[in-house]
């Protein structure tokens, strides 16, 4: 199968929620070193709520329903990351109701990162979540012809992880990490790391 179904999307987001709920301390530690130390709490709160809502979701839910559920949970959470992740998942929720082809997957993630970049005013190289989102979508767009969705997302995950790692040597130009100047150097941006975890989580989705 090449298509991302609603059930796949639900399992993917549940796996991501589990990852964040398990390793939130690592995210918080990074935000403590280059921010205000609430990032892990902000995303874990959002994904805890999302997890409960996803488990209640109708089995016939399509990818848009799954992404809208996660968007709503982020919009209700605190921090700068709440509205940004809320918008990211909210744009994904505008994708087609039917299972997504590789092309539709790439298009949805392109629209989503463009929206985040516009709202936050952040481009690649400014030590934000955008540094993981952009290489991930480029990997999705580069994949030709239509791949099995897990294979496409696995490539996106490698690109996102490299993007997150690239933030280590950056000086922040956006968000709270920009207030601490040189102190942020050597610290991976937690938002970018969470995005890498998101794409990596697809590897834990069982084939149905
Ligand atoms: P706050 O700084 O309000 O406490 P969070 O801790 O919830 O916000 O989120 C911090 C993360 O948000 C950062 O790691 C970064 O990835 C992301 N971020 C902050 N500002 C921006 C921005 N202007 N554009 C994109 N992402 C941003
Ligand atoms: Mg913070
Ligand atoms: Mg804060």
TrEMBL record:
<feature type="domain" description="DhaL">
    <location>
        <begin position="7"/>
        <end position="204"/>
    </location>
</feature>
<dbReference type="GO" id="GO:0019563">
    <property type="term" value="P:glycerol catabolic process"/>
</dbReference>
<keyword id="KW-0808">Transferase</keyword>
<keyword id="KW-0418">Kinase</keyword>
<dbReference type="GO" id="GO:0005829">
    <property type="term" value="C:cytosol"/>
</dbReference>
<protein>
    <submittedName>
        <fullName>Dihydroxyacetone kinase subunit L</fullName>
    </submittedName>
</protein>
<dbReference type="InterPro" id="IPR036117">
    <property type="entry name" value="DhaL_dom_sf"/>
</dbReference>
<dbReference type="InterPro" id="IPR004007">
    <property type="entry name" value="DhaL_dom"/>
</dbReference>
<dbReference type="GO" id="GO:0004371">
    <property type="term" value="F:glycerone kinase activity"/>
</dbReference>
<dbReference type="Pfam" id="PF02734">
    <property type="entry name" value="Dak2"/>
</dbReference>
<dbReference type="InterPro" id="IPR012737">
    <property type="entry name" value="DhaK_L_YcgS"/>
</dbReference>
<dbReference type="InterPro" id="IPR050861">
    <property type="entry name" value="Dihydroxyacetone_Kinase"/>
</dbReference>
């Amino acid at each position: 199968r090449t298509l991302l179904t609603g059930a796949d999307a639900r399992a993917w987001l549940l796996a991501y929620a589990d990852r964040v709920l398990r390793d939130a301390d690592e995210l918080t530690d990074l935000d403590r070193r280059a921010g205000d130390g609430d990032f892990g709490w902000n995303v874990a709160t959002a994904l805890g709520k999302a997890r409960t809502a996803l488990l209640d979701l109708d089995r016939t839910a399509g990818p848009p329903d799954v992404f809208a559920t996660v968007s709503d949970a982020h919009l209700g959470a605190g921090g700068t990351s709440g509205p940004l992740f809320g918008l990211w998942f909210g744009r994904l929720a505008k994708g087609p109701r039917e299972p997504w082809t590789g092309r539709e997957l790439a298009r949805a993630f392109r629209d989503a990162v463009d929206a985040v970049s516009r709202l936050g005013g952040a481009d690649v190289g400014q030590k934000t979540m955008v540094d993981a989102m952009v290489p991930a979508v480029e990997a999705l767009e580069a994949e030709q012809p239509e791949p099995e969705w897990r294979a496409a997302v696995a490539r996106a995950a490698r690109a996102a992880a490299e993007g997150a790692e690239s933030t280590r040597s950056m000086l922040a130009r956006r968000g709270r990490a920009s207030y601490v100047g040189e102190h942020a150097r050597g610290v991976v941006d937690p938002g970018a790391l969470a995005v890498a975890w998101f794409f990596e989580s697809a590897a834990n989705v069982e084939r149905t």
